[in-house]
Amino acid sequence: MAAGYLEILRARHAVRLLVGTLVGRLPNATAAIAIVLFVRAEGGSYSLAGALAAVYGVANAVGQPLLGRLVDLRGQPRVQLPAVVLSALAMAVFAFSGTDPAPLAYAAVSAAGLFTPPLEGGLRALWPSVLPKEDQVHAAYAMDAVAQEVMFTLGPLLVTVCVSLWSPQAALLILNGLGVLGALSVVVSPPSRAWRSAPREAHWLGALRSRGLLALLGAFLFIGMALGSITVASVPYADDHGGDAVYGWMMAGLGLGALAGGAVYGARQWAGEPSRRLRVLVALLAVCYLPLTLMPGAVPMVLLTVVAGVFLAPCIACAFVLVDLHAPRGTVTEAFSWLVTTFTVGASVGTGLAGPVVEAGGALWGFAVPGAAGAVSLLVLVCTGRVLAVPAGRGVVAASSENDPNRALEPRFSSGDRA
Fold it and tell me: By three-state DSSP, how is residue 251 classified?
């Protein structure tokens, strides 16, 4: 298993791009908890803290595909670097001005979220130019998904360390400073500077004119809803079975399951059509959510959350392959950014939906939401199977060669074939 990942990491620039992207995304991964802790330290209410964190999230969801489109048009350094600097400056304004006046606080966090650079989509656009083989690109997508889980696990711990050693204000400033350094490491690298998107057909919908991409986004909206609803349903369960410590272990269990599943999935080559494989993975994901409704004791429940997370990273990694194949010519970064945004919006919707469900029927009905959302996601994939299917012989490396002028001799196909 490790040999495949080591082969990828030995490729020139691979470690730098992966680590730089992860560090560059730290501000985004830790924004919600850092904002909440800062607002509470300033004497603000939980309502204000939640509202500011939500505003950041909405602005981020809006900004990712817009900045992704600019990256496809202008290149990575000319967009990513100014964006990360503006985002960090806006968060610094928030850190120094505090919550009073409130309009300034809302404007600052909005700007910080809006200008968060689409490093995640940018990295996935770069993998085919760094790795020569299609199976390596697929494995890199899986490794990427696993690395994201590590970041979202360690990021909040880093926030608490900064708060403990210094202050919530220092946490905001340090994490955003690290974000600038991470993004800088990526955008000054040779692959990022050399990368150019293929010429694109002018269209106001951009990547969204692809029916295959729209089908994927529809499916992943519900996968995001499933994940978001678990975070809410777990709260009343934990209150009855040990409190905050149990809740923390349940959330860690989801991450651990995703890490294990992604590591195993990316360690081998997978034959067959990726859209068919995604349907199988989503079906398994939905099935693994169902045992949560059993609500056993704390230890078995934590183990069930590990199982519930196992197929999440493989689903995401497989979706990356399909995004690359279905993105219209010249829109690959925007397309990846749309997937990230849709998943995030879905998680927010799931969080909001699970609240009333839990209040009406308790934790049991709350845990029924993920299984139902997973089933709807599978239904979307089944109903759009013909749209998502990719003709044989059109691999991800060939598709992505359109975005790398150094691969001009590799097989190509027209944007019409991918839309």
Answer: helix
In this predicted structure, the answer to whether residue 248 has a pLDDT above a threshold of 60 is yes
CATH architecture under which domain 1-6+13-139+158-197 falls: Up-down Bundle (1.20)
Q: What is the DSSP string of 307-350?
A: HHHTTHHHHHHHHHHHHHHHSPTT-HHHHHHHHHHHHHHHHHHH
| Of residues 82, 65, 75, 103, the one with CA closest to residue 340 | 65
**How many of the other CB atoms lie within 10 Å of CB of 362?**
15
| CATH class name, domain 202-419 | mainly alpha
Residues 371-410: pLDDT tens digits? 999 999 999 999 999 999 875 545 544 444 444 444 333 3
Which residues are CB-neighbours of 96 under 8 A, at least 6 positions away? Answer: 169
- Determine the pLDDT at residue 217: 94
User: Can you give the pTM of this predicted structure?
Assistant: 0.75
Four-residue CA torsion sign, 102, 164, 227, 217: positive
298-309 helix and 211-241 helix, angle to the nearest 10 degrees: 170
The label of the residue with tokens 């992207």 reads: 21
